[in-house]
Amino acid sequence: MAGQTVTITTPDGSFEAYQNGAGPGLVVIQEIFGINQVMRDLCDDFAEQGYTAICPDLFWRMKPGVELTDKTEEEWNQAFEYMNNFDIDKGVDDIAQTIDYARRTGTGKVGAVGYCLGGLLAYLTACRTDSDATVGYYGVNVDKYLDEASKIERPLTLHIAAEDRFVDKDQQKAMIDGLEDNPHTTLFRYEGVDHAFAREGGEHYDAEAAGLANTRTRKFFQDHLG
């Protein structure tokens, strides 16, 4: 099934999203590189699993249609510039609007899954929206938002890279300590792997850890989204 570009209208304006599949909704939250081939491939994979996968363009307020890779220093610098100027709160608002869109246009429940910057946004999605089930991969700066953990009322899974270059051991411990008492939250820590261990083709891709994390994610969504 081929994906398509759809438009989501919000009180702040309209932005595009990549969409593929049919079934329960799943908002796929981008990394710092925009909606690139990696994100489209993830949507296509989730579509094959039976979901309506939707990846919203969260950088649209700065520049619509950002599409970078992790292959050159120039693109990394651009990606970090977008991340540093990104409004986290507005991003979560856009995810909430995408969830609403998925509920209006799809069938059944709606969840979310995010990677890198999207891992943080996935955590905040669990805190601030009505996502039915949420997964975050190697989210950065989650420890800065632990005061919102008490708002999590639906299932959340976080995948943590033990050797994450962007999330040191103290930050990881803070995440684990801050979330371990929340009955809706499950954390998995993967030893010996770095940030973005699940990004196929990436420098730190680890097939074994990625396979385990993705298997856990698949079961999690099967259990909670149906």
UniProtKB/TrEMBL annotation:
It holds the Pfam family DLH. GO terms for molecular function: hydrolase activity. Keywords: Hydrolase. It comes from the Bacteria. The keyword Transmembrane does not apply. Residues 22-224 form the Dienelactone hydrolase domain. This is Dienelactone hydrolase family protein. It comes from Marinicauda pacifica.
